[in-house]
Amino acid sequence: MTGETFPDGAGAVSAAADPKAAEDSGGGTPPRLPEYADGGAGADALAAVRAAHTLEQQLEALLLVADEPLGAVALATAVDRPVREVRRAIEALRADYDGEALRAGDGEAPGSANPAGAGRRRGFELREVAGGYRFYVRETLDPLVADFVRQQSPSRLSQAALETLAVIAYRQPVSRGAIASIRAVNVDGVVRTLLGHGLITEVGQDSETGAILYGTDDALLGHLGIAGIDELPPIAPLLDDGSEGFDGEGL
């Protein structure tokens, strides 16, 4: 998902859906939904989407695009289902990804992802972190992924990426929200790009908000030819007077 951009109005879908027909189709082509001028979906469209997809499918879609761990309550609100059902569905998904099967009556949700038995372990897993759930590459595949990233053709970072990297370098550990506040723009895509390049890494969670905190990775030190962040030049001489968000405090 590194460097993804989403066009304005993305997500608009077309034509009307019959929830009953979706149930009778046995998992065929999902019904088409009505278009909306603003690209958003109304209550009827959301109801049709929920009727056309299993609870597990809905949860997977939400978890796939989330930048932060999503809690059971937030997921339940998004899919309009009880929290207990969401928790059961999540456990069914985790068992499916791990190549396991939930025993009957052992928390398996109706129509769960793996009702027939154990399957093959996936290359990713669904972890419970920071009070929520998030997809991660399976740890045993980390060397493969790291090698793949290193072998990608080097590309120059955009000005936005360089500015965001500077904020993280001088203010770490820092949350995505704090970075966005300093730069006064959305930084979700840029942060994903920097993570993909191995220049920054997750270093913990904020004790009050639970937000993920970011810091620089050793790879950045190698690129800069320094032994530690303390060797970075003072920030004040590099900025115009009155620059907000970089008053030097805590640097």
Automatic annotation (TrEMBL):
Keywords: Cell cycle, Cell division, Chromosome partition, Cytoplasm. The keyword Cell division applies. Signal peptide: none annotated. Residues 1-39 are annotated as: Disordered. One of its GO terms (biological process) is cell division. The keyword Cell cycle applies. This is SMC-Scp complex subunit ScpB. It comes from Leucobacter weissii. The lineage of its organism: Bacteria, Bacillati, Actinomycetota, Actinomycetes, Micrococcales.
